[in-house]
Design goal:
The chain is built from seven helices and two strands; from the N terminus they run αααααββαα. It is mainly alpha-helical. InterPro entries: Na/K-Atpase_Interacting. Keywords: Cell membrane, Membrane, Transmembrane, Transmembrane helix. Belongs to the NKAIN family.
């Protein structure tokens, strides 16, 4: 019935799942709770879209397509957050729900970054604390986060287009199957057979 879209199953999920998992790992390392929850929901929806593709459930794929619009909006917000657009501040605790002062994992572990700790024991009230400075970063961490979100937007747009294509293929196959009478209660080519006794009478005459 759906042989025409068997190739859809092989390439739909892989890059989307890998991109979401990669983003989740680095957000976990930075204790970014809001992105962690968003990534978790994104992974669930991607799996739902995969299930819909394999099991020929267009509604699940439509749910994924709708989610991609939300996911793009979320990543645009992340870009604005790190670029400090519209009064947003990358140093705020918005992404950690104001329960911790953690920042992006890339802020201390970016390419070329050297992390140094300086003792603060000489300052009253700050004994046993350290001041952490990061120097030598080849690229500021906020730009790395912006590139991550931009890549997620690109992947989401590709996923949206592919989801629309898969749904259209399923719909066309359903329509063609209905046209040839696949779901009709009676066959399209119905032969009105005469009763057996009537055939005998005609033969006798």
């Amino acid at each position: 019935k759906h042989c025409g879209c068997r190739s859809c199953n092989s390439t739909f999920p892989s890059p989307f799942q890998l991109a979401a998992l990669e983003r989740q790992v680095f957000d976990f390392l930075g204790y970014q709770w809001a992105p962690i929850l968003a990534n978790f929901l994104h992974i669930i929806i991607v799996i739902l879209g995969l299930f819909g593709t394999i099991q020929y459930r267009p509604r699940y794929i439509v749910v994924y397509a709708i989610w991609t619009a939300i996911w793009v909006t979320w990543n645009i917000f992340i870009i604005c957050f790190y670029l400090e657009v519209g009064g947003l501040s990358k140093d705020s605790e918005l992404l950690t729900f104001n329960i911790s002062r953690h920042q992006s994992w890339w802020s201390e572990n970016g390419p070329g970054c050297v992390r140094k700790e300086a003792s603060m024991s000489g300052i009253k009230g700050l004994d046993n604390h350290s001041y952490i400075s990061v120097i030598g970063c080849a690229l500021e961490y906020r730009y790395i986060e912006v590139m991550h979100s931009s890549f997620q937007i690109l992947i989401a747009l590709v996923g949206f287009v592919y989801a629309c294509y898969v749904v259209s293929v399923f719909t066309e196959e359903e329509d063609s199957f209905d046209f040839i009478g696949g779901f009709d209660p009676f066959p399209l080519y119905h032969v009105n057979e005469k009763p057996t006794n009537l055939l005998f009478k005609q033969t006798y005459l």
